[in-house]
Amino acid sequence: MRIASFNVENLTDSPTSDVPLNARIDILRPQLARLAADILCLQEVDATKHRQTHRREHSALKALLRETPYQDFHLASSLDRNSGLPRDKHNLVTLSRWPITCSQQLCCDLLQPPLYRNVTSEPPQDAAAAVTWDRPILHAQIALPNGQALHILNMHLRAPLAARIPGQKSGPFAWKSVPGWAEGYFLAAIKRSGQALEARLFIDSLFDADEKALVAVAGDFNAEEKEVPLHIVMGDPEDTGNGRLAGRALVPLEHSLPHERRFTVVHRGRKLMLDHLLISLQLQTSYRDIEDHNEALGDELVAYTLIDAAPDSYHAPIVAKFELNE
């Protein structure tokens, strides 16, 4: 069994896109073929409104997967809760060779979003408002061929970019004041950590139901292992201080990679491991190896300024190999 995660970065067939879909397919399809995944977690899959039905569909994804083994895989997708259809931007999609017996998405379902009153907004904010997450978590339960059930969480946490504060921005990436930016950065950290907390609450509910549950968490955390979101999701005994909870911890598979290969994004010359595969101890008994396909990865900041209409994703895909027990 091969489980993979890949942030394909704004996969769309919108006519307003700077990069034609065919150009992106030429780059992305060989990467997907190399993964040879049985279960594939994708992030940033956009959906386009169909001209006739006016319903949003994963048309760009279907075009990418056409004439590949993935086109016949079972599919679970995050959805807009109002329409019941995929959102226009940044959907999560999980593809599986084996049946997906159930799927659900979580977004402020297991905890009340925290209330916060802005202090730098213009005009001043009169009352506290809920700080909700930008994206849901996608859970899929997969029926493995050996009769076991695998729970896989597909995640895309908010990037560490300051959240909007009313009246404090002078442009898409420019702020009117340092306090305004600082408060936006603080709110972004709340959103990212809140998503991670909801994932951990759900993971523990799986262990409550079955202490030997097979659990995998995959996706773009926009955070490295030493940062708060990873600590929350992993639940390491060194953090909880309780060895009786060790069976509920998740193992980061990137530890199998040599340090010089341990990165999925290059930003301003820094090599960062932002995409992760975390697994339960019960699943670790079947774990054999992990690959990080980062050989051709460019610097996302340099590419943004130097390359016109780059078709690449500036996230490297990762894939882990398991041997299923009979």
Specify Rg, calculated over alpha carbons. 20 Å
- Low-pLDDT windows of residues: none
Number of helices: 7
Strand count: 20
Note the main sheet. 6 strands, mixed
Shape: globular
Per CATH, the architecture is 4-Layer Sandwich
Strand content: 25-35%
Structural summary, described in words:
With 326 residues, the protein is an alpha+beta fold. It has a single domain (2-322), classed as 4-Layer Sandwich (Deoxyribonuclease I, Chain A). 23% of the residues lie in helices and 29% in strands. It contains 7 helices and 20 strands. It has helices at 21-35, 59-65, 178-209, 228-234, 237-240, 281-284, 300-306; strands at 2-11, 39-45, 48-49, 56-57, 74-77, 91-96, 100-106, 115-116, 129-130, 137-143, 149-156, 169-171, 174-175, 214-220, 250-252, 265-267, 270-272, 275-280, 287-292, 318-322. Strands 5-6-2-1-20-19 form a 6-stranded mixed β-sheet, with helices on one face. A 6-stranded mixed β-sheet has the order 7-10-11-14-18-15. A two-stranded antiparallel sheet has the order 3-4. Helix 3 (178-209) runs parallel beside helix 4 (228-234). The protein is globular. The protein starts with a strand and ends with a strand. The mean pLDDT is 94.
